Amino acid sequence: MVNIRELAVEKERLAPGHRMCPGCGLAIASRMILKATKDPVVVANATGCLEVSTTIYPFTAWRIPWIHNAFENAGATISGVESAFRALKKKGKISSDKEIKFLAFGGDGGTYDIGLQSLSGALERGHDFVYVCVDNEGYMNCLSLDSLIQTEEGLKKITDLRVGEKVYAFDQKTGNLVLKRCTGIFDNGIKEVFEVSTDHHSIKATSNHPFLVVQRNGKQTRSSLAWKKLENLKQGDEVVTLKRIAKGKSYTFKKIIASKKGDYKVNKINPVTLPKRTSPELMEFFGLFVGDGWVREEKTEVGFALPEKKEGRNRLIQTFRKAFGQDITSFDKLYVYIYSVNLSRFITSLGFGKGAKSKTLPSWVFTLPEDEKEAFVRGLMLSDGYKLGESNRYVSASPELLRTLRLLLQTMNYRVGKIHIQTKKKGTFVVYRKLLEDSSYGYIAFSRKKKPDMKRYLSQIKQRDYLADNQWFSTEKITSIKLVKKEPTLDLRVEGEHNFIADGIVVHNTGIQRSSSTPFGAWTNTSQVGSAHQGKEQFRKDLTAIIAGHHIPYVAQASIHNYVDLLKKAEKAFNVKGPAFINVICPCIPGWKISSNQTVQVAKLAVDTCFWPLFEIENDVWTLNFDPGENKKPMTEWLKLQGRFKHLFRPENQDRLEKIQKHIDERWEWLKKQCGK
Amino acid sequence: MVQKTKQARTGAECSAEAMRQINPDVVAAYPITPQTPIMHAFSQYVADGKVDTEFITVESEHSAMSACVGSSAAGARTMTATSANGLALMWEVVYIAASTRLPIVMNVVNRALSGPINIHCDHSDSMGCRDTGWIQLYSENGEEAYENTLMAVRIAEDPNVLLPVMVCQDGFITSHSVETVELIDDESARGFVGEYHPKDALLDTDKPVTYGPLDLFDYYFEHKMQQIDAMEHAKDAIRKVFDEFGQLTGKKYDFFEGYLLEDAERVIVCANSSAGTTKVVVDELRAKGEKVGLLKPRVFRPFLAEQVVEKLKHAKSVAILDRAASFGGHGGPFFNEFRSAFHEEKEKPAIINYIYGLGGRELDLAQLRAIFEELKAVASGDVGHNVRYSGVRE
Hints:
The complex is a heterodimer.
Chain A: H1 4-9, H2 25-34, E1 41-45, H3 49-52, E2 66-68, H4 74-90, E3 101-107, H5 108-113, H6 116-125, E4 130-135, E5 148-151, E6 154-157, E7 166-170, E8 177-198, E9 202-206, E10 210-215, E11 224-229, E12 238-242, H7 280-292, E13 293-296, E14 301-304, H8 311-324, E15 330-331, E16 336-339, H9 341-350, H10 370-384, E17 385-388, E18 391-396, H11 399-410, E19 414-416, E20 420-424, E21 429-430, E22 433-434, E23 439-448, H12 454-464, E24 473-494, E25 499-502, E26 505-508, H13 543-548, E27 554-559, H14 563-575, E28 580-585, H15 589-592, H16 599-608, E29 615-618, E30 621-624, H17 635-639, H18 654-674
Parallel strand pairs in A: 1-2, 1-3, 3-4, 4-28, 27-28
Antiparallel strand pairs in A: 5-6, 7-8, 8-9, 8-24, 10-11, 12-24, 13-14, 14-16, 15-16, 17-18, 18-23, 19-23, 20-23, 21-22, 25-26, 27-29, 29-30
Helix pairs in contact in A: 4-6, 7-8, 7-10
Chain B: E1 4-10, H1 11-22, E2 26-29, H2 36-47, E3 54-57, H3 61-74, E4 78-82, H4 84-89, H5 91-99, E5 105-110, H6 124-128, E6 135-138, H7 142-157, E7 165-170, E8 178-184, H8 186-193, E9 210-211, H9 220-249, E10 256-259, E11 266-269, H10 273-287, E12 292-297, E13 299-301, H11 305-312, E14 317-322, H12 333-341, E15 350-356, H13 365-379, E16 387-390
Parallel strand pairs in B: 2-3, 2-4, 4-5, 5-7, 6-7, 11-12, 11-14, 14-15, 15-16
Antiparallel strand pairs in B: 1-8, 6-13, 10-12
Helix pairs in contact in B: 1-2, 1-7, 3-5, 7-9
């Protein structure tokens, strides 16, 4: 009996921390299968995504005995292990009541194609094992880090990047900032990571990572830019860094669910007009919020710690009126309060964080035009900032806020120093008030970069900054290169320019082939979409039917979305004496070109369209587990969600869509007849 | 007390006998001429219950070695046998077996690699595997094949070695020919081979292990160094096993065995059955007063270069016979390694190479007499072409 609550709290046999893509179907399938038996399990795994991303030496994600041999021989390998078990039991070297379940995992590559012979032999010989094919319909290949990359949509974590997204890069011919498509994201394994620091930037990278540096050759005219690996860099080398990002435009907010008068239990509403997009006044308001504001949604409260008679409060009242069309009515000597359900929901949705320690800058702030960014900084300075001579200082208890603010200021042509952390004792007067308890906080100092006289002193200026006359980039001397530690590393491949901007420094940039399981029409790297051919030209192999021809005790087809069905089938497979085979559909994020949150939905639609029917064959008796009946969805519902089928929706490919539907319908009718329907 | 019996057996039957006495836990094999009689005989033992072995009749040689890897990793004593194209088909897994440090013992009945397809003897198959990380033992006759197979188990399972071993014998010439052989009794053989105590077995579910992880550039090289070190340790392990087994049989075993070598001026170096043929010619010429001798490699991997120098340095000229060609190379596999062993030596014999016997072409007494004759000229400085061919129509 499948008890999902019990299974959910059991210790995982596949430990977390492996490198499968977020949302990977294989991870879901293999975890579930491993929970379907209480007996010890020994696994033989074919080469593939599952194997590669769980065992990068010296780490392993497998808490059970596990062997990887080669690509095509999971069936043969598990035969050897299972035979050894019987042999040793016979000789009394293993106790006769010891139970072990033998499980082989293979992708569609290692099962439908190169591994078919090995699987067939193992089935024919009748070994007592379960073979699970984790079918993601192609030879996929795939990966974690905290680098922030400048993309078209703003600053993003490298792990949030998708292939095809545009990132900012340095055009080496013109010296301009350009947008380039990211053509690949790949795992570099656990490596020694060094931190390269300049006065205003720092980045972590591995020793073979190329940086763009200035090669000085005496006279200014002979100097040039060249790529140098980190291991060849030294203190004093000048690296190319980002000066500022392109124009930017006002950000249009995503709609939130706003309450209105007349809604259930809503009889009074504060008429706050939520703005549709950013403006300088609104950004100044947000600056004040990030510095001194908080949200308490449960109290519908948005508050600010801005004392009366100070510039901060005045600006708050003014900007709020301008941006939201309302007056602030609730305040006392030290604090200002706005009570509004919609406002509090709105502010929470923006991504600034809620409390002092959790504040941060969401990526959309980086895409704003200069005047809005300046207004934002103004607001920040009015709250937790102060001037010290020519230098501005901003104080915050949130390290994440300081880190992102620093990056923002760099795109605005400010010079920004390091993040300094301090601890002040309770009772100390800080900014406008006494501290209620000991607190740790940080600050950064920044100042406007002065514009040098380019015409008169260009040559001299270039001695200091080789790219002084470049509006997007400048150069900075390396102040230190330190070994940080061993970390998992990731790398990007960018078309054309082969470089991208990560953490403000310009750095260089690093699967998916058809199998016989790839569906008709699908794009893969070996069934490309071009003018002469468009995607795979053969219908996929019906492996489950081939396995049925071996007349083994148990064969089944399952899907990750229907876990009750999958777990039941896995349980049956483990308990049967002799060979058992389960084919599981596992959507693949990069290979199918879907989002990481669509895995389960796409698996379900595969079943609802009858592309991947759920059925069992127990001792040659075929049973259909699920018939959508009248709710059978057309294939287009499934195809349209996946980028690998995008080209099929061009008008000239209408006939291919029809071909696909016809084929699926024929297979479905055939299967129903097999199952006696 | 060890009891030796003289029996009339083919080389293949000798290997099968050794396997019967070893009584491995698992054998996974696929048929290919001329290895087949080994497995036919062994299958009969299985059918008669004379062994407890689980015999997996796999569907290809690739699966044979794959199943052996699975079985050995599981903690079972595992054996198999193959030839030529079967060995070539399992090539990928042969490497994996060695790098996974599994003590698998395989009988390789030497046969020519296709194409054209040829089922007769030459050494192209095992020579092709000399870089795989397997220990290689060569057998002059059935009795040596029997002895090597028993010793192979102990060498492979030595805790400082843990490398697979291939025992080679000539296809048809040795495997299918009946000779008088002296075998030891079951009890002594089993006592010598002993029990297998596997390390890190997959079936030890209380101590889960991961076999075959992914290595990136940061660890692969070090893992290969461990294999290289294991081969070094194998030299000591082999020496120990030779001495121990020698006490059972009363024979002396060595990496390179000399025949009338001590004062020989002209020497032929060759392995497997050709060594036996050469001994006949050496006796013949010695009776006429010619100072000739034979050096027979028994262990090719690991290659004990020091012993090669020690045993051959006194000779004036040496002909290294290779029953395999290395196309595009300067001479055959044995030639290159033996010759290179002498590189640093100030005093060395003149060394030439003969490629012979490809595809089962016979190496007869006349050819060997001719080679010893040519070595006279070589000894006096007239080396000429140092890579020559014997027995081929020009």
